[in-house]
Amino acid sequence: NAGVTQTPKFRVLKTGQSMTLLCAQDMNHEYMYWYRQDPGMGLRLIHYSVGEGTTAKGEVPDGYNVSRLKKQNFLLGLESAAPSQTSVYFCASSYRGRPFYTGELFFGEGSRLTVL
Amino acid sequence: AQSVTQLGSHVSVSEGALVLLRCNYSSSVPPYLFWYVQYPNQGLQLLLKYTTGATLVKGINGFEAEFKKSETSFHLTKPSAHMSDAAEYFCALFTGNQFYFGTGTSLTVIP
Fold first, then answer.
1. C-alpha–C-alpha distance, residues B81 and A84, integer Å
2. Cα-Cα-Cα-Cα dihedral sign, residues B106, B107, B109, B110
3. Which of B33, B44, B91 would best serve as a mutation to test chain A binding (most A beta carbons within 10 A)?
4. Closest CA to A88 of A11, A2, A5, A3
5. Which residues of B touch A24 (CB under 8 A)?
6. How far apart are CA A2 and CA A26, in angstroms?
7. String of b and e for B8-20 (b: at least 16 CB within 10 Å)?
């Protein structure tokens, strides 16, 4: 079982460059999330998706875009990277129960991004 | 507003001693509560969860937590710390829309 897979695991960018982080899950989960983790700040939600073709903003969406063209994939894009986006990014997924409950989050191993 | 507060960003215990990590929450709806553990350079793994029913929940690796509605708390405990318990621990709240995480508690186990 691969679970949640993130690529790449490490990346160094220069200010102004763009890049995309890919998250793939093989559990047929409906919900997918992108978080960033910074020292002393816990996990902050960037964007999330409740199903294929839908996305929504989280707590810290500025500077990021996302797409969910396929149920199993959730892409996080940085159009013009800034040093403030240096962080560890985690993708997570969960199933949706009925009527509203979602199961616990399953996390990828993280993508460490450095913006110089 | 929904929020999670973890008291103590760093906790140190001796090997074999009781582990107590504190979590308080604020929620306007019945909460679902979770504890996650993160080992260095890894993602978060679920330790245990409370949704409904029994307020004392048991998780993996000997951890347990008790949901106390009157105190809005969900503290994590383990009777006897092991060296392998050294990690970052996160309390999380789910309120039907999204998850809210605490800022984490780093547990150090002293041999």
1. 37
2. positive
3. B44
4. A11
5. none
6. 7
7. eeebebeeeeebe
Place of tokens 């949640």: A4
Cβ pair B51:A101 closer than 8 A: yes
A–B interface: beta-carbon pairs under 8 A: 49
Name the pairing type of β-strands A54-57 and A19-25.
unpaired
Residues shown for chain A: 116
pLDDT higher than 60, residue A109? yes
pLDDT of A8 reads: 97
Q: Say yes or no to pLDDT of A47 above 70.
A: yes
Average pLDDT over residues B15-27: 97
d(CA A20, CA A107): 18
Whether residue B76 contacts residue B65, with contact meaning beta carbons closer than 8 Å, is answered with: yes
